[in-house]
Amino acid sequence: MGQFLTDIKTIRERARREINEGAVTPDYALDKDQVCKILNEALATEIVCVLRYRFHYFMASGIHKEGVAAEFLQHSKEEQAHADKIAERIKQLGGKPEMNPAVVAGRAHAEYVEGESLADMIRENLVAERIAIQTYREMVNYFGDKDPTSRVMMEGILAQEEEHADDMADLLFAVNPTTEEETKLVNPDEKDAGKKVDTVNAPKAQTKTPGVTKNFDKKSSDKKSSGGKKAAKKK
Q1: Cα–Cα distance measured from residue 193 to residue 200, given in angstroms and rounded to the nearest whole number
Q2: pTM more than 0.85
């Protein structure tokens, strides 16, 4: 078994002497106040995202409403879970989770934008997710090895924000930004991607194939005729 880098007797003495510090030990390498400030910005961002997604859930309308609204609601719940984790971590570090509405709006990285259509809502959520992804990645780098607990927490949140952004990108691709009509779900690199589906020249399921249909109809007719002759003979 390896030896402790710090004498265990010293660790025990410090633990008793500095008991009021809670989870923060003397070897914590970052400025507690600065860390709590950064985490409170992340908390504010999550709270704003919760409210925006929840508003969009209730206000979603149009032919895509059901599926998109369900996605908004799910994201709202997951953003709330993020906020709870961040608030708990701030408390562990001896700080105060800032939830005053008057302060939250000014600290959030993302904005609260309602949007005028379903496509607007999806677009604003995608923008907000992209902002969170970039700022959270910076937080992960800031915490590094000096605060692995906060780093791991933010890495988990970052991963889910990336999933959210991907979900919003898919939804935006499936809804025309102006008319909200069905669009072609094809590779976005293709030149026709995102255009309204052309149904004018679409193949008809009931169209008969020349030749094949005639032969088929002829055979069916022959069978009916022969069936009728056999029935007549039996009589």
Answers
A1: 18
A2: no
